[in-house]
Amino acid sequence: MARLRLAVLISGRGTNLQSLIDACADAGYPAEIGIAISNNPDARGLERAARAGIAARTVDHRPFADREAFERALDAALGEADTGLVCLAGFMRLLTPWFVERWRDRLINIHPSLLPAFPGLDTHARVLAAGARVSGCTVHFVRAEMDRGPIVVQAAVPVVEGDDEARLAARVLAAEHRAYPLAVRLIAEGRVRIAGDRCVIDGEEESGATLFSPSSPGGR
Ligand code: GRF
Q1: What is the pLDDT of residues 95-107, one digit of tens each?
Q2: Contact between 149 and 141 (Cβ < 8 Å)
Q3: Below-70 pLDDT ranges, the chain
Q4: Considering only CA atoms, which residue is closest to atom 2 of ligand 1?
Q5: CA nearest neighbour of 192 among 153, 159, 219
Q6: Which pTM does this prediction carry?
Q7: Cα separation of 85 and 106, whole Å?
Q8: Cβ-contact 97, 120 below 8 angstroms
């Protein structure tokens, strides 16, 4: 079966891009990266793409007159790369409804919280301030409203005493690096069906695992 062609959109360090690069390096993985695109010419993720021998391009948003002109250039680059699925991975530009509709159901994002809780920026600080005992990450299809859309995969991690933003972010990031390749694999295998605001996952099995936080062996 042909592998699903990904375009990974980044703005910064690109550790989620790296997790997808690593997953795609396995010949049995059902997706491949056609291109990595950054809106920021200084993004460290561009070096990761170069190191992996992956096509990379900068589409700098700054010379464009408006958001839509930038997105038309982005759209052209995605088309040229024969993109089947766009993966936002720390891409720090808001997308207009035009772009979101054009790539509807072929555009996913990763967010460092258990959506719909804590959408937006400064996620980890807000999780800590709220005293939540569990956080995590979400891979979802993108809709016009920020950090909303049918959820493909979530992974949960505990929030523990002594956590600061950096410690919690690192724990969530490690979960992100497993969740994004899993979500892409499920989509590439054709196991994800979008039903209204939800995803239905074909062949899903119950793992039986419960995450307690604070941890409680035996759950008592
Ligand atoms: C990740 O935490 C992701 O969830 C958020 O931006 C961060 C990107 O990190 N959308 P990286 O550039 O992939 O390392």
Answers
A1: 999 999 999 999 9
A2: yes
A3: 217-220
A4: 112
A5: 153
A6: 0.97
A7: 5
A8: no
